[in-house]
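yo, Sushi repeat-containing protein SRPX2 is done. seq:
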Amino acid sequence: MTSTRCIRIGPLLRCDTKPQFFALLLFNSVFIHSALGLNYGGSENVDHGSYNEVQDVYEEETYSAPQMDYKNPRWCRTLSLPNGEVACSSPRGGGYTSTLGTRCLLSCDRGYRLLGRSSVQCMPNRRWSGASHCRKIRCHVLPLIMHGAYSCTHGFVADSRCDYTCAPGYQLEGDRYRVCQDAGKWSGIEPTCADHEPPKLKCPLSRVKVAEPGKLTARVSWDRPLVKDTADKTLEIFRNGPEPGSDFTAGIHVIRYKVYDQAKNRAACKFIVRVEVKRCPALKPPLHGYLSCSSDGNNYGAVCEYHCEAGYEKRGTSTRVCQFNRSWSDKAAECLLMQFKTDVRTAAALLDQFYEKRRLLIVSTPHVANQYYKLQNIMLQRAECGLDLRHVTVIELLGSPPREVGRIKGSHLDFEVIEDLRQAFRISRAYFTMVLVDEHGVDRERFINPTTSDELYAYIEDYLLTEEERERLEENRDFCE
Ligand SMILES: *[C@@H]1O[C@H](CO)[C@@H](O)[C@H](O)[C@H]1NC(C)=O
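structure:
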């Protein structure tokens, strides 16, 4: 025996022959969509492989058949409804479920919907007045959600429960699950997967750098900060501050980074670059000399060179370097008074040695017992350091021949030299005189009375010192005290 399966397509019913599955009920030129196992009274099945128009079906008809037998317990075929229930009541009693006139109520199991009539009657033509079947209740296919998925206990049929999950980094918002309900509708509303988790941003460690040798800056590099986001793969990072590999000046620099994920969640981090300029203690210029230093004078790597003023000779190393451990290399150089030769034969030979280097104060007295000289001598002894600071060498011409003495500090001068000096600067032996000679050998001032050191200094400073010498003098003014 074959049966026919019919599928409704719009207003049409398409039927295919399928053994044992479906039966097509032909009734009053009307095709009835037959339910599984719903048998009808006719002995033969009608097969149709074509489209047939569906009209109003299942109208109950009353027939007057010639030989009606109300006692036949099998007037109509036994009614069965897969996935459903048939409850019949016969005029003849409960046991007669297929007698003529039996009325049956059809209902479907949970999860099934009745298609067709809910009540049929066994008719005189030995057929049931209608056909029905139970169809599994289905909900529509749940759409996929962005950044998420769902899994269902029984697909999209009634009572199936679909649980939603979100991709890593996303949080579920809304109903966590939806159930396919009896009416074929999903419970709840579609949830969404949202990214509320900010990315993770890790800045490099803060660092302290020492300015490079001979510089007040340090070049500092670092790796890009590490960024991670559970949801997004590629993230754009923004920097606020100098780029890696920049030269940083001394002090504290804050470098900030921030990042946004695609959901505009923000993360930020910062780190500090501190640049330290290592410095040595400032060097003091040597007495009678000065320093010239590279870079910033006393920063790490700075080189200082010692120079001596005219008339002074350098002793010791001429350059010192400020080292990493904040100490200077080597020892300070000294500027020592040049050594003059006093055993020369002429005044010219003597004066040549002082040319452009030293000034001379020639003190002449007829006798060491001279009152003016004695007074002046006391004052000059006290002024020795001050005169030296002003580059003045004292030459004494004392007494008269044959006991005449000429000397520079303890060194005696040749008689010829004394005579030459007296002539050159026109210095009489008859009275106390002091002559101040500049560094070019020109006599600039004469003193015939004892003169205080302050007066001498004032004169030298006002008329003889160069601008540069005056500046250095200011720096060392206290030296002699
Ligand atoms: C500083 O370092 C130099 C060499 O780099 C060393 O000779 C000197 O002793 C150190 N000075 C101090 C104070 O540590």
